[in-house]
Each structure stands twice: as structure tokens, then as C-alpha cells.
Amino acid sequence: MDNLKELYRMHADFCKFMANPKRIEILFLLGEQEICVDEIARKMDVKVPNISQHLAVMREKGVVLARRSGTKIYYSLSNPKTLQACILMREAMVEHMERSKQMKGKGDEHEIRDNH
Predict the structure, then answer these.
(1) Rounded to an integer, what distance in angstroms lies between the CA atom of residue 54 and that of residue 60?
(2) What pLDDT digit, counting tens, does each position of 35-44 carry?
């Protein structure tokens, strides 16, 4: 039981530190390929020091791996399942948004019918 409680705590901690749109965007970029900090910053239109800070946190939490090549540092995902989990969450949110939109549309139809 204690192991399960610890797992819940770790899961919550992971969700908390990943609750940042930039970190999620970095995760998706790294899902495509190993990429250097400069390229991540360019693709996200964010300054390198800001990206470096996010990557440092992600590295500390074990989400990304770093590899130095000359003067550049390249990052990759430490486990592709992390991205798969985020993709699954995104799909669930898209489905929720679509259902909400459909429900709102049905409510509008009833409103129009009631007014005529």
C-alpha cells in the first residue's frame, strides 16, 4: 500500500512540474527527434536561457536526456511513454472539447426552436 501511495505522489509531482505549456511543447518537439537547445528555442520563438531553464527541470525529473556534441547540447526523451501519455491526454481533451461544442450546439438549437 505504501508503494502505491508513493506512486500516486510521484504521479502528482510529475503532473505538477509538467503543468507548463512550454514544457509540454518541448516534450512534443523532442518526440520528433533529438534536438539542440538553440533549435528548440528557434522553433518555439523563445530565448535560449528560458528553454535551458525548462530543460534543466525536465532533466532533473528524468524526462529528458542530454548529450554534448562540441559546444552544443542535444536533448532527447528519456522514455517515449512520457510523450505517449501526453498524446493520450491531448486526445481526451480534444474529445471533451468536441463533445462540449456539440452539446452547446444542441442547446442553441433548442433555444432557437423555443423562440419560434
Answers:
(1) 10
(2) 999 999 999 9
Identify whether the C-beta of residue 37 lies closer than 8 Å to the C-beta of residue 59: no
Give the DSSP per-residue string, 11-45: HHHHHHHT--HHHHHHHHHHHH--EEHHHHHHHHT
- Identify the residue whose cell numbers are 471533451: 96
pLDDT tens digits along 4-52 = 999 999 889 888 888 999 999 999 999 989 999 999 999 999 999 999 9
Q: CA 11, CA 3: separation in Å to the nearest integer?
A: 12
Crossing angle of the two packed helices 80-115 and 21-32, in degrees rounded to 10: 120
Decide: 110 and 103 in contact? Cβ < 8 Å: no
pLDDT confidence band for 107 (50 / 70 / 90): low
Amino acid at 52: S
pTM (2 d.p.): 0.79
Q: What is the mean pLDDT of residues 54-82?
A: 94
Question: How far is 55 from 72, CA to CA, in rounded Å?
Answer: 14
